[in-house]
Amino acid sequence: MKKITFLLVCVMTMSFAHAQLTSVAIVGDGVGGWPGSAGNPGPTDINQMTSSDGIHWSIANLTVTAGAAKFRGNNAWDLPYNWGGTTFSSGTAIVNGGDISTTAGTYNVSFNSDTFAYTFVLVTGGALTSVAIVGSGAGGWPGDAGNPGPVDVHQMGTVDGVNWTLNNLTLTTGAVKFRGNNSWDEPYNWGGTTFPSGTGSVNGPDIPTTAGTYNVSFNSTTNVYAFGSVLGIDEQNSSFFRLYPNPTNNVWNFNSSTVIIQRIELYDILGKNIISITPNRLEANVDASNLAKGIYIAKIIANNNTATVRLIKE
Description:
Layout: H1 2-15, E1 24-27, E2 47-48, E3 56-64, E4 67-73, E5 82-84, E6 90-92, E7 94-95, E8 100-102, E9 105-112, E10 117-122, E11 131-134, E12 157-158, E13 163-171, E14 174-180, E15 189-191, E16 197-199, E17 201-202, E18 207-209, E19 212-219, E20 224-229, E21 242-244, E22 251-255, E23 263-267, E24 273-277, E25 283-287, E26 294-302, E27 305-313
Antiparallel strand pairs: 1-2, 1-4, 3-9, 4-5, 4-8, 5-7, 6-10, 9-10, 11-14, 12-13, 13-19, 14-15, 14-18, 15-17, 16-20, 19-20, 21-22, 22-25, 23-24, 23-26, 26-27
């Protein structure tokens, strides 16, 4: 009996093994076509969503018709990476759930692959083409001397029309808002009540600011924003160690021939500490295999030497 139970546990454990989630797309006749159809012939699904952390996925200005849709991972129907739901325009999906009935329109869509929460936000007033940070805390409100227009000074960048970023923004004590399309037209102006991070609302209040230099992020679907303190870069003081490879896919190596590397702290572009190690030897390795692609900052401490360098994960 013990042998049978052991074998059953092994088989069940193996059955739940699955590959890492590397992509999420929206598929269905309501969004161009089911996989294998003329509108979505494959092997890569047409409506690929983007993510900066492998959890929060989004796609902007998606044309939706009356029909059905599902979220599909890794361009395959393999479990547990396909999700359906019962409600539109928002809800919580389930693995291998039913088709989500869609209503025609243009939407900004978000999906959380941890909680399975999804939203289809109807785009009105035309597509969102730009987002800027405006206000007395960022040089001036639109029309002020520091932001005379017609294009707002502090324009943010984006790769997907949903996740917007601006690095090394100098703020003073004051207030700011996020403004779309260089206009106050709704629904493309957002405010909030908390700093340095929070969830904004359309036509919300001014966000109070604290003086400093920040890397800023804003999601125009979820309205989540963050102002991350910028670490100073001191790469000229990095002669006491050798760093390779940089960029990397898997690991960064730090080698010193003269001093013991006591501590390495790794930060994301928003200033959040994500890895800290204390090797206390002449060489150290920082595992990057589970990190999202992008720029990171490492602070290296060795005896009385300190250096801060940029790292790139490919």
